[in-house]
Design brief:
The protein is an alpha+beta fold. The chain is built from 6 helices and 9 strands. It is elongated.
């Protein structure tokens, strides 16, 4: 091959090499750009589904009712709720509404909210509220545990009659009826009126055991398997009586 023929071939080879390197660089840049786009692309979470909440994701309310053998509509009527709207179980248990009424769960309707009485503030008002509601709805249970003061209470009523109740708010303010077997099983500490041997450690222990007692009397709201019942949402509303 003459030198005159070799020079054009060399130029062609150099051009081919340059094109090859250019394609490689272009491919590399496109790959980096694609990776950056994927990294910046927002992750679309699945729609919030009531059934996706595991029990541990639900915060236990400070107080709640468990009403046996009635419909949510009957509870709504007894509480005198006006305009209502749907609400998920997790949001309802957060306690941010006046009243949240759950769907019926294993024969129970759970009620939470700021409209429930506080036995620490007025145990007589708590008694009157629960007896009036029980006259309307039959079997009603009440549970209360302050996260900070460790005040606590539990009560069972049937058709307006208190069958068992205990409340401690720095001292025993309500102790009615015979201690039940579930109370004995979970080993809650009880004190009589005017008794001063009850300690803050006892109060803390009772507050921590309240969910266990609720589970034996009826159910612990945070341990409900949310996929086991239908419909998926409860309702929230305000009382027309207020």
């Amino acid at each position: 091959m003459s030198q005159a023929d070799f020079i054009p071939l060399m130029f062609l080879a150099m051009q081919g090499l340059a094109l090859g390197i250019g394609f490689m660089v272009l491919g590399w840049m496109l790959a980096i750009n694609r990776r950056n786009q994927l990294a910046q692309k927002p992750v679309i979470a699945p729609a919030q589904n009531f059934f996706l909440y595991p029990p541990t994701a639900v915060r236990r309310p400070e107080s709640w009712l468990a009403v046996r053998g009635v419909s949510p509509e009957a509870v709504q009527t007894a509480l005198g709720l006006g305009r209502t709207e749907p609400c998920s179980w997790a949001e309802g248990l957060s306690g941010g509404h006046e009243f949240f009424i759950s769907p019926r769960v294993h024969g129970w309707v759970i009620v939470t909210g700021q409209g429930l009485p506080n036995p620490t503030d007025d145990v007589d008002a708590t008694f009157l509220f629960l007896t009036a509601l029980s006259r309307e709805l039959g079997h009603v249970q009440f549970f209360y545990a302050s996260r900070f003061l460790r005040h606590h209470a539990w009560a069972r009523l049937d058709h307006g009659c208190v069958t068992r109740a205990y409340a401690w708010a720095g001292e025993t303010v309500w102790n009615q009826g015979t201690e039940t077997l579930p109370e004995i099983e979970v080993d809650v500490k009880l004190s009589a009126y005017g008794e001063h041997s009850f300690t803050l450690n006892d109060a803390e222990s009772n507050s921590e055991k309240l969910p266990q007692l609720a589970a034996r009397w009826s159910l612990d709201p945070t341990q409900v398997k949310l996929s086991s019942f239908h419909p998926a949402t409860g309702i929230v509303g305000r009382s027309a009586f207020r």
